[in-house]
Amino acid sequence: xxxxxxxxxxxxxxxxxxxxxxxxxxxxxxxxxxxxxxxxxxxxxxxxxxxxxxxxxxxxxxxxxxxxxxxxxxxxxxxxxxxxxxxxxxxxxxxxxxxxxxxxxxxxxxxxxxxxxxxxxxxxxxxxxxxxxxxxxxxxxxxxxxxxxxxxxxxxxxxxxxxxxxxxxxxxxxxxxxxxxxxxxxxxxxxxxxxxxxxxxxxxxxxxxx
Length: 210
Ligand SMILES: Nc1nc2c(ncn2[C@@H]2O[C@H](COP(=O)(O)OP(=O)(O)OP(=O)(O)O)[C@@H](O)[C@H]2O)c(=O)[nH]1
Ligand SMILES: [Zn+2]
Known about the structure:
By secondary structure, this protein is an alpha+beta fold. The protein contains nine helices and seven strands.
């Protein structure tokens, strides 16, 4: 079954280890280079198959992570019901259609319901799903569903703003285009005022940059 048909629970767990060996993967890159009319034995390309495989493995390393592992227990009981927002999280993913970069940022908020999560873990959850072959819509949903499942909060809101290199460097070639996707759960879906508060907080520019 293709990954986009997996249930949320299945997408949350780590994927099985690949059945293809490292040399087989490197050989495939060598074949690609040959097909492109290159000489894979010239000095500059000699280690390229190895490098490409290593780079792709890093960029898809999210398949081998699990929420349990990255959370490291950092969910705490806390009696607060105010919105928590981590905005402007740098995001680097790869589109599943072309294996080209998706570059952008994510804004992730939730309203607690007795539990809070370590702030860095919000960015780590985002990274785990970004380091897989993705479409932006699914990435957005997976992050929202993961937080919803972990914290059972009053609501979760995720907005991702990205530019897709497959639309910039090739194909339709639209460098200025941004794709904005959102997933609103719980009170963010039900209550327009809460949603508006979130939207205005992510529009506001912070007064300093670290
Ligand atoms: N919905 C969605 N589409 C995406 C995403 N990333 C890439 N795409 C699109 O996936 C589509 C694939 O379309 P195809 O016609 O099969 O592929 P293609 O010939 O390379 O298409 P062009 O990019 O239009 O040249 C394109 O419209 C891409 O813009 C994404 O994150 N979400
Ligand atoms: Zn693409």
